[in-house]
Amino acid sequence: MRTRNILWPTDFSDTASHALRYAIEMANLYQVGIRILHVVGQPLGDQNYMILSITPEELAKNMEDAAAAKMHELLAQLNTDLEIETVIRRGDAIEEILAEANSGEIGMVVIASHGRTGLSHFLHESVAEAIANKADCPVLVVK
């Protein structure tokens, strides 16, 4: 843990931004870097319906470009001397975050919980809960 980077997965929400403060604090404590990860979902489309004016691949590329712009904006706001690396992946958020967390380069994951309860929690798998249960490294879930 003490020599590996902190992974901070983000969806660019306010809740995720709150968790970034904890990630920076932990990185400063252990004198390690932060890897910022954003996962773009793979859009689905059926060419037979002819509804989309662009292909799912073009849509995914546009989503990745928008995420990269948000990453640059976020990095410009950070005032830290920490080594920061940004990664944008395409796919399922849980699978991609776990792949990064279990890569051997990550010492801790700091992730935000969106705090779903009741029926919403039952119907939607909690990303933070899945990461906490399946990651090989420690996971700090921030509310």
UniProtKB/TrEMBL annotation:
Gene3D superfamilies in the record: HUPs (3.40.50.620)
SUPFAM superfamilies hit by this protein: Adenine nucleotide alpha hydrolases-like (SSF52402)
Domain of life: Bacteria
CDD domains assigned to the protein according to its UniProt record, in alphabetical order: USP-like (cd00293)
Cross-referenced InterPro entries: Rossmann-like_a/b/a_fold, Universal_stress_UspA, UspA
Pfam families per the UniProt record, alphabetical: Usp (PF00582)
Domain UspA: 4-143
PANTHER family named among the record's database cross-references: SENSOR PROTEIN KDPD-RELATED (PTHR46268:SF22), STRESS RESPONSE PROTEIN NHAX (PTHR46268)
Record-stated family: Belongs to the universal stress protein A family.
Protein name: Universal stress protein A
Lineage, broadest ranks: Bacteria, Pseudomonadati, Pseudomonadota, Gammaproteobacteria, Alteromonadales
